[in-house]
Specification:
323 residues, alpha/beta, FAD/NAD(P)-binding domain, five-stranded parallel β-sheet, 6 helices, Ferredoxin--NADP reductase, ferredoxin-NADP+ reductase activity
Amino acid sequence: MVVGAGPAGLYATFYAGFRGLRVVVIDSLTELGGQVSTLFPEKAIFDVAGFPAIVGRDLISRLQEQAASAGAVYLLGRTAIGLTDRGERGLLITLDDGAVIAAGAVLVSAGVGGFQPRQLPAAAPWLGRGMEYFVQDAEVYRDLDVVITGGGDSAVDWALHVEPIARSVTLVHRRSRFRAHESSIDRLLRSSVQVLTNAQVSQVLGVEWIDSVEISEASGGSHRRPAQALVCALGFVADLGPLAGWGMEIANRRILVDSTMRTSLERVFAVGDVSDYRGKVRLISVGFGEAAIAVNHIAALLRADAEVSPGHSSDRPAPVTAG
Ligand SMILES: Cc1cc2nc3c(=O)[nH]c(=O)nc-3n(C[C@H](O)[C@H](O)[C@H](O)COP(=O)(O)OP(=O)(O)OC[C@H]3O[C@@H](n4cnc5c(N)ncnc54)[C@H](O)[C@@H]3O)c2cc1C
């Protein structure tokens, strides 16, 4: 079983199929792709091997296409909450809807755990009525007055991203300095985005849908500004949640693994952002490598006739993919 369908989990799914294993994939979110789909689907990624540049959404659909050959069962919108270790008889994993699934091994690719957006109290009641926590599809903002709150990479990138198609973009940050990449801040300051620092959205107004926001400045003044869309990009709070109670050794909210990606539990492996070891680097490309290591060791654990080394994929017939 794979817990977490971010990039590491999707690649692990492909790899498990490649090693002839049957796979069930669980994710709390209703769509595949983890942080990439949720937080930066439209950003270009430049450090994935083989792709000089690839947009987040496209990377996930390529991974999904590659994983199709595994014929995995996807249980989306469900959270893995409990684990019972039955020794030689394998593991039982309990989901939040009460389902219990038996598995020979579990690969945890849970990223930063379940993540919840940081709330802006004045805006929370407007979720789905003009307020969102993520920019999924920039087209939605065409010809609208858009207000974005936040001072990190997501807020700055999204402001730049919707600027060419929105009627106006205002970026509101409660501090004086942004925490975003320097080159993005340079672009921001050269763009038509109106940047308001030392300020915050104190009130959201409208009837069915947002029509304006009240912006309060630290200096004491306030003004109203038209807004049919508000994006609260204040970051997210990550929580390992139920996984923390599974009995794996954990430090600093990460699951400790050995060089085979095995946790302190015999049949549970962890890869991607959620795992930790000396020298760990949290990148998509690293998660892919870890997934291959873990699945090859899982194959050897589950099947007496399987070796750790998989041989070369290029020696095999082409896998059958969906579509
Ligand atoms: C704005 C931004 C830009 C980035 N840019 C880059 C970049 O350019 N290059 C790069 O290499 N990396 C980048 N990263 C980092 C990259 O996104 C992560 O390293 C990568 O997503 C980690 O993949 P993962 O599969 O380990 O976990 P995630 O992508 O976090 O996926 C984990 C999944 O597990 C699920 N989950 C968690 N707990 C449970 C549970 N109990 N039950 C069921 N499901 C669960 C979550 O819902 C989630 O879908 C960026 C990150 C951010 C935020």
